Amino acid sequence: MEAAIPGTHGLTVLPFFSGERTPYWRADLRASITGLSASTESIDILRAALESIALRFREIYCLLAARRGAPAEVIASGSALLHSPAWTQMMADALGRPITICTETEASCRGAALWALERLGVIDSIGALPASTGAVFTPRPEYQPAYQELLARQNQLYERLYG
Prior knowledge:
Shape: globular
CATH architecture: 2-Layer Sandwich
Strand order of the largest sheet: 3-4-5
CATH topology: Nucleotidyltransferase, domain 5
Number of helices: 5
Distance between the termini: 32 Å
Helix content: 40-55%
């Protein structure tokens, strides 16, 4: 799966299996897959679904970066990324930014606890207790045009169905 060029499957996926949160905040949205044919294989659908989720993260990243500036680094957590280097690479490629894997268990809970400790004045800053990290995934520049095209197709499909 890692060797495939993004989008060569010809599929466009909107991954709204449980509605959509950021950036649309619409529970009524539903998932869709277009471009299926008799030659579509299950691995094509899997890859297209993973790419589509990576592109949703790209949309969120771009919104945040436009308002707050690009972060110094992107650290990703979660068992799915930790156990799937191929998907983590897709995320880095889709974002166009290096992604560092967080190896902390229950990273979200840890972050919430550190935020509370910071707000209470127990620690000076969350940065004073850095998380344990692992591999860094660097985006492959040759895939940037493919992800641009996939994002454009995803946005066009969204507009046709929900615009």
